[in-house]
């Protein structure tokens, strides 16, 4: 069989086309086929024939470099894909140059992120690397010209990444873009108990739902992630328990809109959170992800109680985007500025010290100078300690891209003005001299400090003492900057180990069952079985009945019997040492 397929396959099953001869049609053809058997003169030749052909590609032994852009949901997807590939036998490398294949996990929120993604594809092709694309860009627009001929793994198909990588390594172009469904109902995505390699072994990112209930006119992510689909509470609680058993001490809940969780399955976010806090060990913490104002309004009382829980960070990310009701209406945000203020004011009163983070888009189509000044006043009023400022970029295929645009120079100036306002105040100066309880979970970018967070998820830099990593410790705040504080551990303070078991080593695969660990520890990879056996040859079929341990019970390739029969015949002709004369 040829080493590469020229056509792009929408699924692996499409290796066999409707025009190909069926097995019973080949009966009449075979009587005109005359095999000539290769002579074997010695035992030496027999041994040589037992070796794989020199141009064979054995999947599962290559090095793979994974690059992820975007949100924590995307980062979680990247961790799951890395875990499955490593569990199967591939080596995950940090060196893009030594990698045989690049797995590029994209973000479609803003133009610059997609530009980086496109440039990485070009660089991979120039370096003769195999490429698999993932994330929201190819899911939302798989037919873009620069994606032509490349393999794509959809955002709900990440549990099949091994299959896509295998086929790509063998030269095929495969696209899996379908949705996960159960009896016609869309699911939250791939299973939560898949093998995973956490970027930080102390932090588990759990996607509680995918998609959202909104239809914001500027948003491209909706095209990729779709409508709301939530995971059941019991699956999320089980995932949290598993994470704590693997040494995790901090959990991040993430999605496109955590506030909308459960509306599609008859539950809600507070119900989930109360179940989760029951299983959080002493010293471990839970961080809640982004929620839009409309879906948190009806749960304010319960949310305030949860955010006051000692094992939940008093932190909430609530994007406002604009302080102009007319702009919010053009964005189709489904709330007004008064709604946002009601949420913030209530939580600030009921959860003393709470950190409210928000997002603002500068220069949305139709935004007037008066609209922008309203936004400036809102920032001046609340002095948000965490503010994500975004210059508007029209995303292809969105309604906002067709609206009359604000001149680029004006957008740039407004972005600059808002940034200057944000940097004009220091939110942490008044905290110098305080004693704070912090959880240490990571290393700073400059590698000079460890990074911890206090109960309000404010960043505190502490000395780089290995004994502090993964610990809850009390510190004296002696310095404050714009985005951080610095703390010195109190000399007589009790240091509490937050993890209930030893954390996994960096790069170690999470979530491996005993069923999988045994063969993995013995040096055996879980491999697909070839579709036919050819005496004297190692057959590497391009279409295998691959069944991974985490896919037992209905997953894996849905290989039709027609495909198996046809491929067996093709491989026999190619590898069996036969010469056909038609």
From TrEMBL:
Protein name: tRNA-t(6)A37 methylthiotransferase
Principal subcellular localization: endoplasmic reticulum
SUPFAM superfamilies: Radical SAM enzymes (SSF102114)
Catalytic activity: N(6)-L-threonylcarbamoyladenosine(37) in tRNA + (sulfur carrier)-SH + AH2 + 2 S-adenosyl-L-methionine = 2-methylsulfanyl-N(6)-L-threonylcarbamoyladenosine(37) in tRNA + (sulfur carrier)-H + 5'-deoxyadenosine + L-methionine + A + S-adenosyl-L-homocysteine + 2 H(+)
Entry note: cofactor: Binds 1 or 2 [4Fe-4S] cluster. One cluster is coordinated with 3 cysteines and an exchangeable S-adenosyl-L-methionine.
Cofactor: [4Fe-4S] cluster
Membrane association type: Single-pass membrane protein
Recorded name of the encoding gene: Cdkal1
Any GO MF annotation of the entry: 4 iron, 4 sulfur cluster binding
Cited function: Catalyzes the methylthiolation of N6-threonylcarbamoyladenosine (t(6)A), leading to the formation of 2-methylthio-N6-threonylcarbamoyladenosine (ms(2)t(6)A) at position 37 in tRNAs that read codons beginning with adenine.
Keyword Nucleotidyltransferase: no
Keywords: 4Fe-4S, Endoplasmic reticulum, Iron, Iron-sulfur, Membrane, Metal-binding, S-adenosyl-L-methionine, Transferase, Transmembrane, Transmembrane helix, tRNA processing
Database matches in NCBIfam families: MiaB-like-B, MiaB/RimO family radical SAM methylthiotransferase
Span of domain TRAM: 429-491
Transmembrane intervals: 556-576
MTTase N-terminal domain ranges (all copies): 62-170
Similarity-based family: Belongs to the methylthiotransferase family. CDKAL1 subfamily.
Keyword Iron: yes
Chain segments carrying region Disordered: 23-54
Domain called Radical SAM core: residue spans: 198-429
Organism: Erithacus rubecula (European robin)
Assigned EC number: 2.8.4.5
Location in the cell: Endoplasmic reticulum membrane; Membrane
A single Gene Ontology CC term: endoplasmic reticulum membrane
């Amino acid at each position: 069989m040829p080493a590469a397929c020229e056509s792009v396959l929408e699924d692996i099953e499409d290796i066999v086309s409707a025009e190909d001869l069926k097995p019973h049609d080949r009966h009449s053809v075979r009587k005109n086929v005359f095999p000539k058997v290769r002579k074997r003169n010695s035992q030496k030749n027999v041994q040589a024939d037992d070796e794989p052909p020199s141009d064979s590609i054995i999947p599962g032994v290559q090095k793979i470099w994974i690059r992820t852009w975007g949100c924590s949901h995307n980062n979680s997807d990247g961790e799951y894909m890395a875990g499955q590939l490593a569990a199967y036998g591939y080596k995950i490398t940090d060196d893009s140059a030594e990698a045989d294949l690049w797995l590029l996990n994209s973000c479609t929120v803003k133009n610059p992120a997609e530009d980086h993604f496109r440039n990485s594809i070009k660089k991979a092709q120039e370096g003769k690397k195999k490429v698999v694309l993932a994330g929201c860009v190819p899911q939302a627009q798989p037919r873009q010209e620069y994606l032509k001929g490349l393999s794509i793994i959809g955002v709900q198909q990440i549990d099949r990444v091994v299959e896509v990588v295998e086929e790509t390594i063998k030269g095929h172009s495969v696209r899996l873009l379908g949705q996960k469904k159960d009896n016609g109902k869309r699911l939250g995505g791939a299973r939560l108990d898949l093998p995973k390699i956490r970027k930080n072994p102390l932090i588990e990112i759990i996607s509680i739902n995918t998609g959202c209930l909104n239809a914001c006119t500027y948003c491209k992510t909706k095209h990729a992630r779709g409508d709301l689909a939530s995971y059941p509470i019991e699956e999320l609680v089980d995932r949290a328990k598993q994470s704590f058993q693997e040494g995790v001490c901090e959990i991040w809940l993430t999605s496109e809109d955590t506030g909308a969780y459960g509306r599609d399955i008859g539950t809600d976010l507070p119900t989930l959170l109360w179940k989760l806090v029951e299983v959080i060990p002493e010293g471990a913490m839970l961080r809640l992800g982004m929620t839009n104002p409309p879906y948190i309004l009806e749960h304010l009382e319960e949310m305030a109680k949860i955010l006051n829980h000692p094992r939940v960070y008093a932190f909430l990310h609530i994007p406002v985007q604009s302080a102009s009701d007319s702009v919010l209406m053009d964005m189709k945000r489904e709330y007004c500025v008064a709604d946002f203020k009601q949420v913030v004011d209530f939580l600030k009163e009921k959860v003393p010290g709470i950190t409210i983070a928000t997002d603002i888009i500068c220069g949305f189509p139709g935004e007037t100078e008066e609209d922008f000044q309203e936004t400036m006043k809102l920032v001046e009023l609340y002095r948000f300690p965490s503010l994500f400022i975004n210059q508007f970029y029209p995303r292809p295929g969105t309604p906002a891209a067709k609206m009359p645009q604000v001149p680029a120079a004006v957008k740039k100036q407004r972005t600059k003005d808002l940034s200057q306002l944000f940097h004009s105040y220091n939110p942490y100066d008044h905290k110098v001299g305080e004693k704070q309880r912090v959880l240490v979970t990571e290393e700073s970018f400059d590698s000079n400090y460890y990074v911890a967070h206090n109960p309000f998820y404010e960043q505190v830099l502490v000395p780089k003492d290995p004994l502090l990593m993964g610990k809850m410790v009390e510190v004296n705040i002696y310095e404050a900057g714009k985005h951080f504080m610095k703390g010195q551990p109190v000399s007589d303070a009790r240091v509490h180990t937050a993890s209930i078991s030893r954390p996994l080593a960096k790069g170690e695969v999470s979530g491996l069952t005993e069923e999988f660990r045994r063969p993995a520890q013995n040096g055996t990879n879980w491999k697909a079985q070839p579709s036919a056996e050819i005496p004297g040859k190692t057959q590497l079929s391009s279409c295998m009945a691959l069944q991974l341990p985490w896919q037992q019970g209905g997953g894996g390739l849905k290989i039709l019997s027609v495909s198996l029969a046809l491929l067996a015949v093709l491989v026999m002709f190619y590898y069996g040492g036969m010469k056909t004369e038609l």
